[in-house]
Design brief:
alpha+beta, 3 strands
C-alpha cells in the first residue's frame, strides 16, 4: 500500500515542475527507502532526489524529491 501511494503521488505530481515532495519513510529496515530510490532512478528524467534535511526529518528518515 505504501509503495502504491508513492507511485500514485509521483504520477500525479510529475507535471508540476519545480515542486518539492518529501517522502517520510522512517528508518526501519530500509525496504521502503530502497523501493522509492529504485523508482526515482527509473524516472531519472522526471525527478531529482536527495536525503531530506537531517535537522527536520532525522538521519535517513526522509527523501526530498524535486520534479524536473
Amino acid at each position: 500500500m505504501q509503495t502504491q501511494t508513492i507511485l500514485s503521488t509521483l504520477e500525479n505530481e510529475k507535471k508540476h515542475h519545480g515542486k518539492i515532495i518529501v517522502f517520510i519513510h522512517g528508518k526501519g529496515n530500509g525496504i521502503l527507502r530502497k523501493e522509492l530510490i529504485s523508482e526515482l532512478k527509473r524516472r531519472n528524467s522526471e525527478f531529482r532526489y536527495e536525503d531530506a534535511p537531517y535537522h527536520k526529518y532525522g538521519i535517513d528518515g526522509a527523501i526530498k524529491v524535486v520534479v524536473k
